[in-house]
Amino acid sequence: MKKRHKRIIFIVACLAALGLATALVLGAFRNNLVFFFSPTQVVAREAPIGRTFRIGGLVEDGSLKRDTDGLTIRFTVTDTANTIPVVYKGILPDLFKEGRGCVAQGKVGSDGVFYADQIMAKHDENYMPPEAARALDQAKDIEKVKNSANEAGRTLSK
User: Fold this and answer.
1) Which residues have a Cβ under 8 Å from the Cβ of 103 and sit 6 or more positions away?
2) Cα-flanking dihedrals φ and ψ of residue 127, to 5°?
3) Spatial distance between the Cα atoms of 92 and 132, rounded to a whole number of angstroms
4) 56's torsion region: left (phi>0), alpha (psi -120 to 50) or beta?
5) DSSP the chain
6) Tens digits of per-residue pLDDT, 78-100?
7) How confident is the prediction for the chain on average, in pLDDT?
């Protein structure tokens, strides 16, 4: 074999190895990528079915219930426009309380309930994850538009 042929085979082998390494890295990245959705987006079916994602918002007051096994907790997460029931089996973070922000990671079941694998609570009174804050702001804006449209409709009907 000529020197030129050996060089071409070496270059092709290196490119194949680089392509394989890139494919493996991108495959691992895609499997570990977790997106954030608000309860409104989950209700609108924008969240992936059968894949892990995060949902965030406020824990609705009066919704926190513990099952008799002591580990299963049921509550609802809201962005003030929509609510999603959440079931979590495990120990809750110390800062987890009703009326405060939380982010849950898990999957939505066929029954519409979000089954969480992990619960994250905010770390102090002023902090909220940026995604959750944005989702709450968007929900408030939608509510304002709906309320102003209702007020305009009442004014016109008088």
Assistant:
1) 36, 54, 55, 56, 119, 120, 129, 131, 132
2) -90, 140
3) 19
4) beta
5) --HHHHHHHHHHHHHHHHHHHHHHHHHHHHHH---EE-HHHHHTT-SPSSS-EEEEEEEPTT--EE-TTSSEEEEEEE-SS-EEEEEEESPPPTT--TTSEEEEEEEE-TTS-EEEEEEEE-SSTT---HHHHHHHHHHHHHHHHHHHHHHHHHHHH-
6) 988 889 999 999 888 888 888 88
7) 84
Q: Tell me what pLDDT residue 87 has.
A: 95
Given a contact cutoff of 8 angstroms between Cβ atoms, the answer to whether 42 and 56 are in contact is no
Burial class (CB in 10 A: 0-12, 13-18, 19+), 13: exposed
Query: What's the angle, vertex CA 91, arms to CA 85 and CA 97, rounded to 5?
Result: 60
- 96-117 confidence digits (pLDDT tens): 888 888 899 999 988 889 999 9
Radius of gyration of the chain (CA): 24
Strand partners for 147: none
Q: What is the largest CA-CA distance in the chain?
A: 95
Q: Is the pTM of this model over 0.70?
A: no
